[in-house]
Amino acid sequence: MTNRHLLDELNDRSREVFRRVVEAYLATGEPVGSRTLTRGMAEKISAATIRNVMQDLEFMGLLESPHVSAGRQPTQSGLRLFVDGLMEVDPVAHSDREMIEQTLGAGAPDVGSLLDRVGGALSSMTHGASLVLTPKHEAPIRHIEFVSLAHDRALVVLVFSDGQVENRIFTPPPGQTPSSMREAGNFLNALAEGRTLTELRQHITREIARRRQEIDSLAAELIEQGFAAWDGDDSDARLIVRGQANLLDADAADLDRVRHLFDDLERKRDIAQFLDLTEGGDGVRIFIGSENKLFSLSGSSLVVSPYMNSDRKIIGAVGVIGPTRLNYGRIVPIVDYTAQLVGRILSGPKG
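Structure for Heat-inducible transcription repressor HrcA, as requested:
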């Protein structure tokens, strides 16, 4: 049954009880009892009547009781129904809007520093951990060089036309020599002129296949190993994580989940998949518990929104991750506003 059909199944009383249980749970993190609800209901009904309604909601899979004597709390399905159909999204508070704008307007216009500040502001405002995926570097490449560090370690250095320098350490093929490294560098520099990293990556594989006779096999392997350091369409983008300590406020029962989440964030695995979560165009997406394919083991919720360049192309994303009892109504507009503002700043003034 879809969420729309589930909502249609609820009468006004059931809908109000359900909404109040979820709102109280999101505010306190505690199961909600029937006596608590009697004090704020629109119609005067007894605690026994409310208990009957809560039992019906539990039968529908929307509420659950953590133990026999406790009140009820929303299930993952219940939270999804609430978020999709009953949640009231607040406008961005003036203080939050002011903090976001001050953060984005402060300091040098360096993209990395700006997005690092965005991450710090988001975690501070939401009391969760923030995730910011920075854009790929799309300036044309000026120069590429391989540098041997040890027999099993080498460095590939990229110099871009805008002056930025990036380098990655990788494991070179056994037996690499200074001459093979020079040959690999010369081959790449001949291909790289005027191309961005994305364009060069697309060009390399077929050129190696076409010109393999012209380059030493060891140099070919070095090129392939070196560029594996930037492998994947979005792995050269950088995931900034801030505010992990906020997640330690979880109950003791949640510590295993938090530990799983910390492990995922520490490894920053599947970075490209973080951007995949924003598929479907602009706007905020909410992933609750196991719906969140990146951090499903931690049972966390993720609120994420892409930001776009002036061509309306998704180039990065901002998000907040925390327990499933996030204050969605407040966090959704904060993430949405931040993503829109980041996109406008990175796109520059319209000509």
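The chain has three domains: 3-86, 94-136+236-347, 141-230.
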